[in-house]
Amino acid sequence: MKAIRRLTVRPVLPDPLRPLSDLARNLRWSWHPDTRDLFQSVDPECWASSACDPVRLLGTVAPTRLAELAEDRRFLRRLTAVADDLDRYMTGDRWYQAQSGRLPAAVAYFSPEFGITAALPQYSGGLGILAGDHLKAASDLGVPLVGVGLLYRHGYFRQTLSRDGWQQEHYPVLDPHELPLALLKEPDGTPAHVALALPGGRELRARVWLAQVGRVPLLLLDSDVEENDLGERGVTDRLYGGGSEHRLLQEMLLGIGGVRAVRTYCRLTGHAAPEVFHTNEGHAGFLGLERIAELCDDGLAFDSALEAVRAGTVFTTHTPVPAGIDRFDRELVARHFGPDAELPRIDGERVLRLGMESYPGGEPGLFNMAVMGLRLAQRANGVSLLHGGVSREMFSGLWPGFDADEVPITSVTNGVHAPTWVAPEVFRLGARQIGVQRAEDALTVGDSDRWDSVADIPDQDIWELRRTLREQLVAEVRERLRVSWRQRGAGTAELGWIDDVLDPDVLTIGFARRVPSYKRLTLMLRDRDRLTDLLLHPERPVQIVVAGKAHPADDGGKRLVQELVRFADDPRVRHRIVFLPDYGMAMAQKLYPGCDIWLNNPLRPLEACGTSGMKAALNGCLNLSVRDGWWDEWFQPDFGWAIPTADGVGTDPDRRDAIEAAALYDLLEQRITPRFYERDASGLPDRWIEMVRRTLSLLGPKVLAGRMVREYVERLYAPAAEAHRAMDPDAARALAEWKARLRRAWSGVSVDHVETTAATALAELGTTLGLRVRVNLGDLAPEDVEVQAVSGRVDSEDRITDAGTVPLKPVGGPDLEGRWVYEGPLALDRTGPFGYTVRILPAHRLLASGAEAGLVAVPSDELAQAAGLLMR
């Protein structure tokens, strides 16, 4: 019979065991081995059956066992030690507290998904895992972050396969009371709520759940409350589900409701109010509108409030293609903002303008969330060096007149949270060399360039570690494969072959990620005969473990999954290649350490960062990847192999796949498998082990989330907090008025004449030219602008590359026609074709860059032809 109502019955812990409840409710257990070991010792069988979730464990362990533990002095000593350790972790000073200067009192970090642990399934892929790692690293460093997201009642889908290999989706209902969450409550004990106004006088209400991620509170908004109508209750039903209006409501709740939730949390707990707001992708971009509305309520005009909000906002873009950005119909957005809906104090047309694609090639009828995010943030970044460049190109239309490399989007390369992703066996090997505390510090703070102690680990120990991890993966794969085949309808009698799947002594390749077409799941199948030969080679075989989910609406991605599954089902090769359904954090934590090679073959440059290879590297797995994302930045032959790419615009996609697949096979046949199977006199693959050693010692420190978060603090959060403090109401009004005056006057700004002391088109290195420039500033004054000489090498079309800038100084006052003369030196500091130009930029102490206002004046074509000088 089916129950008509479900409720959660929580255990009553004996008083000596009460600290177990606090330990279970703080998600630090998910990356703290001692805490996990403690929970496992409560009841090893219950721990395994609860999927290593302490909340579920405590709900299933027998009362007799709890009573027994309450009398076990050895267990109670361990419990006290672990609880005391958590208390020191939560209250003691860490890296952030030791820094000098005025750092932000708090930072609010918004993301549509968070991958903290498999016990809280609120993520779909890399964006969520990155957000979870960001929170965990911030906690380890003591950064006062507040996370903000949505609580999805179905999370992301669970994946199974049909008998013929077609992806099937299942959406289990998540009960918040059975998750490591607590309701945020008002002083009278009632749940705290936030509300959004909807068209037609309706309302969207949400309660706020709190997940404690170490020192970092994560606020998750949940619309499934009785006060809502059925439609509104379903707003937070599924991650990335529903149609356009459904997604818009999710993003309004995340951004606008999220700010309100942060204000409520700070009011109820006394937590410092955030000075910086960080939006992880455009989904949370509406947070800027809510903050503008707050300031308008305090008496600021819209333009002044906009400047104040921009000063303290950081925007991170993760997509390298316009198709990856959320865009909504302009009329749909207009309906949800204005007098009859949300933020009635703000003119709806001003809202629409923030997201308008007002640049060549843009669609004015669409509202672009990333465009709004960039317009509402004074600081923006991509997630790898290469992706920063791709982002500057992609969004350059927002800064007309500037070369792409001057677009104010920087980059902070992603990192991964080592305590989450490093296998316990790898950690123990490191701790044996340098001690537990130093090993923990190395993995969390990440402030060293190299881990020299790895050099002292004997080859034999490294190789035994690698085989142990491979052996564990083989056992995991067989167990998951057996479950998958039963779900596909196979009987026990059909599954005897699974006992021989994979071999712990065979070179193991891993490939696991989401399955959009650009990641090319099936590139490895391009030449099936050649792949089969690699899998079945008599002396140097390889084996491949593949996992990944296609979006439920992406039939093309599902066909790729089916194509791979059908190949892996072939009895000739199924012991050498497997597809594991339902890829998630629990699987990943076994997969990364157990592989020898991590394969990544996206279409370059469509991988923004690609952090899965970082997690593999931290476990001594070597990367085999297209030079995209982070691998383009840090690739060295010491760490793995780069798959050559056919990037030319004239190469059709089919031919490109053929070329790159052939390059992949060549690398495996000629360089990778020989090195893995080649043995020295002691029977060890010494050259392979040396690559593992270098990966750990040189690449390991680079890929840490601790390094990433420190960069965010130093390069983005601290400057944003400083700008926020400087932008008091008077400063915000003054800046808004100055920008308005600037825009009105800019049409009168021009470069009228350029002359130089150089008499010929030839000069020697080290020569200094004198520049004299006459400019018209119209209604502006010299303090409103900076006149610059821009110089550098020039290409065949006289475009300046690798440009440097030198400010020129005004000489005297304006002439009778109101024009100013600027002068300055120009050093010829490099040989070869050399060129220069001059330009005028807005200048103000509160601008983060000269490009921020999007205005520039350069010489006219006629003037450039008359005065332009190229040195050859």
TrEMBL record:
Gene3D superfamilies: Glycogen Phosphorylase B. It catalyses: [(1->4)-alpha-D-glucosyl](n) + phosphate = [(1->4)-alpha-D-glucosyl](n-1) + alpha-D-glucose 1-phosphate. Phosphorylase is an important allosteric enzyme in carbohydrate metabolism. Enzymes from different sources differ in their regulatory mechanisms and in their natural substrates. However, all known phosphorylases share catalytic and structural properties. CDD domains: GT35_Glycogen_Phosphorylase-like. It comes from Streptomyces lancefieldiae. Belongs to the glycogen phosphorylase family. It holds the Pfam family Phosphorylase. It is an enzyme of class 2 (transferase). Its EC number is 2.4.1.1. InterPro entries: Agluc_phsphrylas (IPR011834), Glyco_trans_35 (IPR000811), Glycogen/Maltodextrin_Phosph (IPR052182), Glycogen_phosphorylase_DUF3417 (IPR024517), Pyridoxal_P_attach_site (IPR035090). Keywords: Allosteric enzyme, Carbohydrate metabolism, Glycosyltransferase, Pyridoxal phosphate, Transferase. Residues 13-120 form the DUF3417 domain. This is glycogen phosphorylase. PANTHER family: GLYCOGEN PHOSPHORYLASE (PTHR42655). The keyword Oxidoreductase does not apply. Its cofactor is pyridoxal 5'-phosphate.
